[in-house]
């Protein structure tokens, strides 16, 4: 029987002719997205009784919740751009949380960061050896790494953390904090503006305030890494070669690119980023290693990357959407999510109109139906029950993917095992 | 003959490698290597054997559910959510006892399969009509399943006096599936559901290898484009494959439900879907292979359980072994496969040169 | 011209000297004691049967695979090529048989990849590409995505890649297989240009007349060994073919017409709208009768694939009517259409014709999943399918040890014969054959032509799509030319020349009313 | 792991265990089966371990331990108990209500072995099982009252780890206590996950986000019953300059110094006391059976005063405590809504 054939990502089964235009988000869309989103939130806060949708607390927490997912997705981006599917992100992230806990506790905050990255690289190394050198199916290797990482970390924790103050077999002692950035006077000024409740202006102020108050240096570094990734992959020859390994490794090899070497490096970097994701989770989002802490965020990162069409900007939007809705659910879930229902309903109805204009009647009816349903739910309920607020991010991700027309495109050779000498 | 030898040598090689790596880890950590292995590799007692078979039954169903998707290049990460909604549904239906005796059991099983199928079908339809990757959608649906089941469980739950666990109504005795004794002592019996699992395995093999539908499914998995050209409707196959995968996923929790817990509650075994992925990969989607994988995982789990008590080593070590086995197995299979392909090409080449030699002779 | 070339060749110094090259693959000797001299400023052709070892030799010269024995000298320096990077450094450039382009990257990115040191990856590189494109008349826009380009343009991008690296020795492996005559002429024009600049060109082709017209020297390879090196004026195509295979050069020739009055396939006003831009097909109308072969000529990418896929029911959203034996096909699925008697030889056998990792007998079932002898009711009848595969293997001369071998293990020609055999099974009334002999050697080609002709004699209707104009002219009873999704001309094959067809295909020639 | 060193050498010879200890010695072997997390979880398993350690020191017991893994099969729990029973451990203590089924079955199989189970009283009638349960709602009532007394904003919060009936008991008591002091008080409630997803007990990031939301929404004191996620609640409190209430053990003593000051008090659930009491009875030769409820009356639950932040209201709290003991106040075990 065949080795299990596997695929992740989006296929074009549904629509055979791939769209011919270039599907690149213009930077203007990204730049306009922030004020646009703020405006929507301002409107929502005016007409519903939700008031936590755009508070600086929500935005700050969103940043923290988004960062590990974004970093995991960034790890996925590196490896998949080089043609290696990385379902082992979760495991590498787990290794990262341990690395942060162990090295952070013993040698200080920055050693923790390095430890997280280093442990992630170890996971990446395993994946690279298995997939790039031995040609193992990428999914199998990833699944194995997830199992091994979880077992290894639990085993290591019971060896290394038991008996330390505040440590145990399931958690590390507290890890020292990395520095945070606060611009005090500005923060206070902005707090005043935020409180004034001026339409849109307060929202803008709370956004800015979140950025100048207690912003962790790791969050800043992570966001920089996103930009660096974009630059390296799309603006340097190293990046071009790396991407060519994911698009057409045979072509790359025929031009003298050492395909396996690039794939190997990409998977190592991927592991390092996923490890850092674990590190941020352990050091910024909380302050120690904790068994089971990742809670599937590696998978979410992978989903955010696919959502973002294997591009940094899209990834940021995907992970941001997830982090934001998760944060809302955990804070004043009932009212905030209730308000979101209204936004979703309006969005769905608008989309339905768009579909009608494009002549897709069935889709329009379905989407309009969902929109009306959401609207009815909004009217009937005063608050969303607590059991459901927790699932908001998952539902929204699913809805957005289902409704946003599918124009995703994964690297052409993603997930394929490449052997040296296959050119020609 | 050589083929058989190769096929056997691959997994043996893999196990040896996995054991070696685990031993290294143990030795590095300063744990007693030999004690650990003598516990894990000791012949299990009757009741442990029963536990191994029981757990393997559950893992097997999960592995088959995942394998069905894999056969069509669909990565159903969502077995976890599917079996959860399904087991809950079965527990509620069976607990309500609308029908008498085994009719009630049958109804519950059918409902479980239907619900599992629907839950997976959502991902199938989204993929077929909207092109949403089933990888993402099933991850999301797992989380949604958790929330929905938690909500509904609280609505229908009954709580035994003095207990902190909540669960659905107990299934009456006449609807429980009797266990099969493999000895006389306590605990020496296995789930009656094991028979159903074997049937599922057989059906999986039969449908996939012997029917037109199975051919279509495998063809789609091997090449979507060739499948389309041959007249297979991919969207329909996608939905069908997800429905079937989900229906089998719906069975995953049922051996436990009808053979042991008789209710669905907050302590119901979780994470079975993810174990199923590893087992399907280990068994290379083959009905027998998956069974071997399930037995192996169940064996390791069972034998490592008393490690902490008897040897003083954390049983987490076995998770490392399991993961390593998944890797070493594929690596050794890959090596064997390459070797096999080479053998085959040699045969082709031999036939080719033979032909040519003959052709040369004619004009000459 | 041939004489001039000859004179140059005699004076040109040897830039590539291959001596005693040998290469073995498991069970196959691909190259064995190959000796070739390529001179500066010449075009050196290499010809040989499928599997003779041409591509392998070129991959060795380009550093993709190491030779097992023998030496390579470039400009009198002995070199060891560990990778294409080494070859590029030594001044060798190669255009592969199958394009080596990343579809989702731009032309610029494809060209500069691996050679970023030369001009970076930005504006300077763009200017350089533009310069090369202009000076050789390649007409390439560096910022387009490769997937938007047609075959001819892709070919030129491949050549540009080689030139960009300043190669002195250019290898072209079957560059003309997918080009129309005008494009071939353009290509040859480009090659002459290169030659004048003092470059050496190594050129592989199965089309012997092309080889004779463009090459200065020709080396024939048979079963991995160099048989002889000749100059074009020494030999005829026939003699070359005999050198290659030891048999005569076959050519398709229409015998007495077997066209009947019985209408079989009727296509009326067929259209296929595109999601954006120009429709893929527009107002296509034609009839095919029993015993008739209708040839479709066209530059690749002008709607042939879409036309075939629409008739096969693989595309949705088509307008107009398609009737097969007076039965409306539009509500029918692909499977129902196949059951209705359509045989289908797809253009890309790896993508649409085969399950490469399945045994031959399963490939026999593919596309015939609902029909005898493969199935009984809902069940697969493995025994009968195997037996019928054996029949195809012997009737169609598929070279394989048996029906249980994976399709991947067969060479392209043998894969194609299996597909032809399969599609002829089950008594089709209509055969849709897209490039049935592409990349297939002369022997296998003749066999496939014979099968098509025999079936036609027994009343089969054939829709033949081919880039090989000789094949079209030789087999068809009528030829329609397709351009930008429309049928723009109808020709009688006994009257038309490849050049006339070529100009109609490119829209240059006078249109003939259909 | 090295946590069970004491046990690993005893595995070989149970008889020899007695000679080496000079102080108290005993031929009793205790088997301890923890819930997920095990010894060192800084939470209720740890508390049980503390009780065991104390008894071991004092009475010279031999003891071995084993812990559950996440999402394990019912048979795994059962097998753990059987392994102990087969190896001659008696008594066997099961920590956590998840063991209820298993203890029921195994106790029937080994009628001569004695079992204890914590947090479950469904086996009250089984002759060889002792059920050790706690009135978490009573302890929570007192910290709820403390929160209401200390809150300046009239706005407090509760973060639950996983929404199970057990954790809802904490919530119910807390709300009742707070309302007793101030009927108009606002109480925000958030659970981090829903069963069977038990990640809410181990996700400090979520704990932090939830608590942060409450503080920014105006709450000034947050009580957590969220196991390992509680660390995040303390962090949020420290960042907000507000207060938090710990759970199970006196978390003022175990928390990191950087967040020590925010822990106003902790709700004590003295699992250690229960385990120790049980074992000391065993040492005396009695094997208790039936249900023992550890409530305010026996100081099985309570509140801590380390750090001295609630010294000023101890009187009031003790008054409530007395009222509960006297039965003047009945604390609900399920949340109001
Ligand atoms: N990587 C490989 N592994 C094994 N065998 C190979 C490999 N590449 C080529 N061969 C064998 O070497 C022989 C020569 O192949 P090659 O591709 O050089 O032929 P060719 O002359 O280019 O044929 P064509 O005209 O069809 O392109 C083939 O018969 C094939 O069996
Ligand atoms: N990379 C490879 N690895 C293993 N075997 C190969 C490889 N490439 C080619 N072969 C073998 O070489 C043989 C012929 O391949 P080749 O591609 O040269 O055939 P072909 O007739 O040129 O087909 P096509 O026209 O499709 O290129 C086959 O038996 C195939 O198994
Ligand atoms: Mg070839
Ligand atoms: Mg070739």
- The computed structural class of chain B is mainly alpha
What is the CATH third-level topology name of the domain at 48-309 in chain A?
ABC transporter involved in vitamin B12 uptake, BtuC
Listing every helix as H and every strand as E from the N terminus to the C terminus, the arrangement of chain A reads: HHHHHEHHEHHHHHHHHHH
What is the helical fraction of chain A, as a range of percent?
Answer: 55-70%
- The backbone outline of chain A, from C-alpha atoms, is globular
Q: Count the E strands of chain B.
A: 2
Order of helices and strands of chain B: HHHHHHEEHHHHHHHHH
CATH topology of chain B: ABC transporter involved in vitamin B12 uptake, BtuC
CATH architecture of the domain at 48-309 in chain A: Orthogonal Bundle
Tell me the name of the CATH class of chain B.
Mainly Alpha
Q: What is the number of domains of chain B?
A: 1
Which oligomeric form is depicted?
A: heterotetramer
Termini separation of chain B = 40 Å
Rg of chain A computed from alpha carbons, rounded to a whole number of angstroms = 22 Å
Q: Regarding CATH, which class of the domain at 48-309 in chain A? A: Mainly Alpha
CATH architecture of chain B: Orthogonal Bundle
- Strand order in the largest sheet of chain B: 1-2
Number of DSSP E strands of chain A: 2
Give me the side-by-side strand order of the main sheet of chain A: 1-2
Topology:
The complex is a heterotetramer of chains A (424), B (364), C (514) and D (337).
Chain A: H1 27-47, H2 56-81, H3 89-107, H4 109-133, H5 138-160, E1 180-181, H6 184-196, H7 201-212, E2 215-216, H8 217-235, H9 237-247, H10 249-254, H11 259-285, H12 297-307, H13 312-330, H14 333-357, H15 361-380, H16 386-389, H17 392-403
Antiparallel strand pairs in A: 1-2
Helix pairs in contact in A: 2-7, 2-8, 2-11, 2-12, 2-13, 3-4, 3-5, 3-11, 3-12, 4-5, 4-11, 6-7, 8-9, 9-11, 12-13, 13-14, 13-17, 14-15
Chain C: H1 2-11, E1 14-25, E2 28-39, E3 43-48, H2 54-61, E4 69-74, E5 77-79, H3 84-89, E6 92-95, H4 107-112, H5 116-119, H6 123-135, H7 151-164, E7 169-173, H8 181-196, E8 200-204, H9 208-214, E9 217-222, E10 225-230, H10 237-245, E11 263-272, E12 281-289, E13 293-297, H11 304-311, E14 319-324, E15 327-328, H12 334-339, E16 342-345, H13 349-353, H14 360-365, E17 375-376, E18 379-380, H15 382-395, H16 412-424, E19 430-434, H17 442-457, E20 461-465, H18 469-475, E21 478-483, E22 486-491, H19 498-505
Parallel strand pairs in C: 3-8, 3-9, 6-7, 7-8, 13-20, 13-21, 16-19, 19-20
Antiparallel strand pairs in C: 1-2, 1-4, 4-5, 9-10, 11-12, 11-14, 14-15, 17-18, 21-22
Chain D: H1 5-8, H2 17-20, E1 29-34, H3 44-59, E2 62-67, H4 74-86, E3 92-95, H5 100-109, E4 115-118, E5 129-134, H6 136-150, E6 155-162, H7 165-181, E7 186-193, H8 204-216, E8 221-225, H9 230-240, E9 243-248, H10 251-254, H11 257-260, E10 263-269, H12 271-283, E11 290-294, E12 301-303, H13 314-326
Parallel strand pairs in D: 1-2, 1-3, 3-4, 4-5, 5-11, 6-7, 6-8, 8-9, 9-10
Antiparallel strand pairs in D: 10-12
Bound molecules: adenosine-5'-triphosphate (2 copies) and magnesium ion (2 copies).
């Amino acid at each position: 029987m065949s080795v299990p054939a596997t695929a992740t990502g989006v296929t074009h089964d549904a629509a055979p002719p791939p769209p011919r235009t270039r599907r690149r988000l213009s930077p203007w869309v990204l730049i306009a997205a922030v004020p646009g989103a703020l405006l929507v939130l301002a409107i929502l806060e005016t007409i519903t009784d939700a008031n936590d949708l755009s508070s600086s607390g929500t935005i700050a927490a969103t940043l923290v919740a988004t960062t590990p997912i974004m970093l995991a997705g960034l790890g996925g981006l590196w490896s998949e751009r080089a043609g290696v599917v990385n379902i082992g992100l979760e495991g590498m992230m787990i290794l990262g949380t341990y690395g942060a806990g162990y090295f952070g506790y013993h040698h200080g905050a920055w050693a923790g960061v390095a430890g997280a990255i280093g442990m992630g690289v170890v996971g990446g190394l395993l994946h690279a050896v298995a997939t790039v050198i031995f040609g193992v199916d990428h999914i199998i290797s990833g699944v194995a790494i997830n199992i091994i990482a979880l077992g290894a970390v639990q085993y290591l924790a019971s060896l290394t953390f038991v008996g330390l103050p505040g440590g145990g077999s399931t958690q590390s002692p507290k890890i020292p904090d990395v520095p945070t950035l606060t611009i005090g006077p500005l923060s206070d000024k902005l707090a005043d503006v935020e409180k004034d409740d001026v339409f849109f202006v307060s929202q803008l102020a709370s956004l800015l305030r979140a950025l100048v108050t207690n912003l962790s240096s790791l969050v800043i570094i992570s966001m920089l890494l996103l930009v660096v990734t974009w630059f390296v992959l799309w603006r340097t020859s190293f990046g071009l070669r790396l991407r060519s390994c994911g698009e057409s490794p045979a072509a790359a090899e025929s031009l003298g690119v050492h395909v396996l070497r690039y794939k190997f490096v990409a998977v190592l970097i991927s592991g390092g980023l996923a490890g850092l994701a674990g590190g941020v989770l352990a050091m910024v989002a909380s302050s120690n290693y904790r068994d089971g802490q990742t809670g599937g965020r590696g998978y979410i990162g992978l989903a955010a990357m696919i959502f973002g069409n294997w591009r940094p900007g899209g990834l940021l939007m995907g992970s941001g959407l997830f982090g934001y809705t998760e944060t809302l659910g955990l804070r004043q879930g009932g009212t905030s999510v209730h308000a979101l229902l209204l936004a979703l309903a309006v969005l769905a109805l608008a989309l339905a109109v768009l579909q009608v204009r494009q002549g897709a009647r069935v889709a329009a009816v379905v989407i309009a139906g969902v929109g009306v349903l959401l609207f009815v739910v909004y009217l009937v309920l005063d608050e969303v029950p607590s059991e459901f607020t927790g699932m908001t991010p998952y539902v929204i991700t699913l809805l957005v993917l289902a409704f946003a027309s599918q124009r995703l495109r994964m690297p052409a050779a993603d997930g394929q095992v490449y052997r040296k000498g296959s050119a020609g | 003959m050589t083929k058989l030898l190769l096929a056997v040598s691959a997994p043996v090689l893999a196990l040896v490698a996995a054991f070696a790596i685990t031993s290294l880890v143990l030795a590095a950590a300063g744990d007693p290597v030999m004690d650990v292995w003598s516990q894990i590799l000791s012949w299990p007692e009757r009741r442990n054997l029963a536990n191994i078979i029981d757990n393997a039954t559950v893992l097997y169903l999960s592995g088959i559910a995942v394998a069905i998707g894999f056969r069509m290049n669909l990565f159903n990460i969502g077995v976890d959510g599917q079996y959860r909604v399904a087991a809950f549904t079965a527990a509620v239906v069976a607990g309500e006892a609308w029908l008498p005796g085994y009719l009630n059991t049958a109804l519950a099983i059918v409902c479980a399969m239907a619900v599992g199928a629907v839950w997976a079908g959502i991902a199938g339809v989204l993929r077929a009509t909207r092109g949403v990757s089933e990888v993402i959608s099933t991850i999301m649906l797992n989380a949604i399943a958790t929330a929905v089941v938690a909500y509904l469980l609280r609505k229908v739950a009954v709580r035994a006096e003095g207990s902190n666990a909540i669960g659905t109504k107990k299934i009456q005795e006449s609807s429980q599936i009797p266990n099969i004794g493999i000895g006389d002592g306590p605990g020496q019996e296995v789930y009656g559901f094991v028979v159903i699992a074997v049937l599922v395995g057989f059906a999986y093999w039969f449908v996939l290898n012997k029917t037109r539908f199975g051919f279509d499914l495998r063809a789609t998995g091997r090449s979507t484009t060739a499948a389309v050209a041959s007249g297979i409707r991919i969207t329909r196959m996608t939905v069908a494959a997800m429905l079937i995968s989900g229906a089998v996923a719906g069975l995953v929790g049922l051996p436990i439900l009808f053979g042991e817990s008789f209710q669905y509650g907050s302590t119901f075994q979780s994470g079975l879907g993810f174990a199923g992925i590893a087992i399907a990969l280990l068994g290379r989607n083959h009905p027998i292979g998956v069974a071997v994988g399930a037995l192996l995982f169940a064996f390791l789990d069972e034998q490592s359980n008393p490690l902490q008590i008897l040897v003083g080593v954390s049983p987490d070590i076995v998770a490392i072994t399991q993961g390593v086995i998944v890797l070493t197995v594929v690596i050794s299979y890959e090596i064997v496969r390459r070797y096999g392909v080479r053998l085959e090409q040699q045969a082709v080449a031999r036939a080719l040169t033979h032909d040519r030699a003959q052709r040369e002779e004619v004009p000459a | 011209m041939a004489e001039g070339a000859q004179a140059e060749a005699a004076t040109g110094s040897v830039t590539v000297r291959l001596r005693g090259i040998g290469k073995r693959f498991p069970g196959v000797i691909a190259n064995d004691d190959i000796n070739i001299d390529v001179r500066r400023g010449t075009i050196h052709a290499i010809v040989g049967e499928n599997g003779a070892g041409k591509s392998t030799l070129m991959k060795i010269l380009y550093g993709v695979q190491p030779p097992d024995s023998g030496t390579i000298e470039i400009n009198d320096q002995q070199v060891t090529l560990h990778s294409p990077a080494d070859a590029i450094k030594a001044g060798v450039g190669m255009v592969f048989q199958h394009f080596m382009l990343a579809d989702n990257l731009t032309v610029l990115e494809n060209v500069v990849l691996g050679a970023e040191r030369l001009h970076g990856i930005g504006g300077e590189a763009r200017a350089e590409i533009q310069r090369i494109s202009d000076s050789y008349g390649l007409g390439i826009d560096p910022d387009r995505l490769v997937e938007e380009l047609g075959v001819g343009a892709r070919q030129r991008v491949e050549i540009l890649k080689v030139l960009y690296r300043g190669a002195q020795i250019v290898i072209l492996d079957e560059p003309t297989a997918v080009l129309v005559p005008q494009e071939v002429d353009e290509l040859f024009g480009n090659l002459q240009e290169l030659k004048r600049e003092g470059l050496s060109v190594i050129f592989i082709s199965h089309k012997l007349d092309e080889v004779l017209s463009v090459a200065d020297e020709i080396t024939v390879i048979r079963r991995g060994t160099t048989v002889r090196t000749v100059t074009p004026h020494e030999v005829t195509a026939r003699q070359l073919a005999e050198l290659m295979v030891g048999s005569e050069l076959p050519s398709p020739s229409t015998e007495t017409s077997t066209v009947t009055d019985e209408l079989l396939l009727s296509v009326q006003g067929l259209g296929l709208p595109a999601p954006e831009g120009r429709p893929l097909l527009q107002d296509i109308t034609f009839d095919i009768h029993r015993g008739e072969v209708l040839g479709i000529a066209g530059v690749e990418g002008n709607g042939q694939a879409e036309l075939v896929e629409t008739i096969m029911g693989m595309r949705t959203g088509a307008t107009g009517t398609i009737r097969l034996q007076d039965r409306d096909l539009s509500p029918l699925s692909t499977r129902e259409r196949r059951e209705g008697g359509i045989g289908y030889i797809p253009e890309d056998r790896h993508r649409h014709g085969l399950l490469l990792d399945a045994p031959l007998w399963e490939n026999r079932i593919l596309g015939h999943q609902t029909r005898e002898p493969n199935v009984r009711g809902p069940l697969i009848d493995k025994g009968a399918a195997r037996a019928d595969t054996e029949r195809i293997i012997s009737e169609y001369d598929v070279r394989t040890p048996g029906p249980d071998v994976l399709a991947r293990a067969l060479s392209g020609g043998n894969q194609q014969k299996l597909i032809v055999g399969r599609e002829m099974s089950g008594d089709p009334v209509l055969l849709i054959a897209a490039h049935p002999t592409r990349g297939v050697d002369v022997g296998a080609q003749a066999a496939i032509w014979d099968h098509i002709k025999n079936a036609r004699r027994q009343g089969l209707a054939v829709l033949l799509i081919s880039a090989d104009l000789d094949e079209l002219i030789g087999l068809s009873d009528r030829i329609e030319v397709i351009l930008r999704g429309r049928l723009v001309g109808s020709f009688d094959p006994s009257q038309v020349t490849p050049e006339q067809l070529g100009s109609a295909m490119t829209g240059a020639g006078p249109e003939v009313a259909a | 792991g090295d946590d069970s060193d004491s046990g690993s050498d005893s595995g070989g010879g149970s008889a020899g265990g007695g000679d080496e200890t000079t102080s108290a010695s005993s031929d009793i072997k205790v088997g301890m089966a923890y819930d997920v997390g095990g010894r060192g979880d800084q939470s209720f398993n740890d508390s049980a371990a503390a009780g065991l350690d104390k008894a071991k020191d004092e009475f010279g017991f031999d003891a071995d331990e084993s812990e559950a893994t996440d999402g394990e099969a019912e048979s795994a729990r059962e097998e753990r108990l059987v392994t102990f029973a087969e190896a001659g451990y008696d008594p066997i203590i099961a920590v956590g209500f998840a063991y209820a089924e298993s203890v029921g079955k195994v106790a029937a199989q080994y009628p001569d072995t004695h079992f204890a189970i914590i947090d479950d009283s469904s086996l009250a009638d089984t002759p060889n099982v002792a059920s050790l349960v706690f009135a978490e709602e009573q302890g929570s009532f007192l910290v709820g009252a403390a929160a209401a007394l200390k809150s300046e904003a009239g706005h407090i919060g509760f973060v639950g780890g996983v929404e199970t009936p057990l954790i809802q008991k904490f919530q119910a008591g807390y709300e009742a206590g707070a309302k007793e002091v101030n009927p108009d008080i606002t109480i925000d409630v958030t659970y981090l996950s829903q069963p069977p997803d038990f990640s809410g007990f181990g996700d400090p990031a979520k704990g932090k986000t939830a608590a942060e939301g409450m503080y920014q929404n105006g709450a000034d004191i947050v009580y957590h019953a969220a196991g390992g996620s509680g660390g995040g609640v303390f962090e949020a409190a420290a960042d907000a300059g507000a207060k938090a209430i710990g759970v199970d053990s006196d978390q003022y003593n175990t928390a990191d110094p950087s967040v020590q000051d925010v822990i106003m008090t902790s709700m004590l659930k003295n699992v250690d006391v229960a385990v120790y009491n049980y074992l000391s009875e065993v040492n005396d030769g009695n094997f208790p059976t039936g249900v023992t409820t550890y409530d305010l009356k026996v100081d099985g639950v309570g509140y801590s005063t380390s750090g001295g932040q609630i010294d000023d209201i101890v009187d009031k709290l003790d008054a409530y405590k007395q009222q509960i003991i006297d039965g003047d106040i009945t604390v609900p075990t399920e949340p109001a809504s």
